[in-house]
Design goal:
two-stranded antiparallel ribbon; about 35% helix; about 20% strand; 8 helices; alpha/beta
């Protein structure tokens, strides 16, 4: 079993998304796809006169923002991905967390960040225990490929927005699967402007050195932290790689 995750930059680039979906559809074996959509959501927010607010890379989700991300993630992005996969012969089924109760999240309580209490609003935290593995395995057993958006629910009638990397990590850990994180770069790079500078393997010790040297920074830090957590919680492996050329073996393998 493998769990693939594609980020918002890929979902927002129709050519890149079509390339990924074509290659993904040709893969063998049971698999689950988790997608983001943050780039498109931010653009829609701005068109509506709503300023996107993020703290440490996490979107603050007030009631109006929840309406936008639900429509973009679980609606437009999810169905666009599913339609493309169907066009390439992959029998995909699009889901949010409330569909079949596939993921039941817990609303994040206010937390202290840099000395201030921050309420992220309708943001849901998920773990491996949040995932309905029986349903996902049943879909895969039927020859279907589950495509999960990052919209979940609390089991009490409320929708919640969850970071897509966290969803993918939790699903992979719950299934004991390999996680393949796909984005617009060839992997974790020593030089962000040189696609040939892929770091082949990263363990926790190297991760700390790369952070101190400033080679790994900003959004890559939580991505790698999430990868280590995924492995500790039961995933069989984690690779960070480009969303194209899925069988070329290029990417960064994360190890404990």
């Amino acid at each position: 079993m493998k769990v693939y995750k594609i980020g918002g930059n890929v979902v927002d680039d129709q050519a890149a998304l079509e390339t990924f979906c074509r290659e993904f559809a040709s893969l063998d074996g049971p698999r689950v796809l988790v997608h983001g959509g943050g780039v498109a959501a931010s653009r829609v927010q701005e068109l509506m006169g709503i300023r996107p607010v993020k703290i440490q890379g996490r979107r603050v989700t007030d009631p109006e923002t929840l309406k936008v991300v639900t429509g973009v993630y679980a609606g437009l992005c999810n169905k666009n991905v599913v339609a493309l996969l169907q066009s390439f012969g992959c029998n995909a089924i699009g889901l949010s967390g409330c569909d079949g109760n596939v993921i039941c999240a817990t609303r994040r309580p206010p937390i202290e960040i840099e000395g201030q209490m921050v309420d992220f609003g309708a943001v849901g935290d998920v773990t491996a225990a949040s995932v309905n593995t029986e349903l996902l395995e049943a879909f895969c057993g039927m020859g279907l490929v589950p495509v999960l958006s990052a919209i979940n629910h609390d089991g009490k009638g409320k929708l919640l927005n969850t970071n897509a990397d966290t969803v993918a990590s939790s699903v992979a850990a719950a299934l004991g699967a390999e996680l393949v994180v796909c984005f617009e770069k060839n992997g974790v790079l020593r030089d962000k402007d040189d696609e040939g500078s892929v770091i082949a393997e990263i363990d926790p010790g190297l991760f700390e050195r790369l952070k101190k040297e400033g080679i790994v920074a900003e959004g890559m830090i939580p991505k790698l932290e999430n990868a280590f957590l995924c492995l500790r919680n039961g995933a069989s492996g984690v690779t960070i790689r480009n969303s194209s050329g899925l069988d070329n073996g290029i990417g960064t393998v994360i190890k404990l």
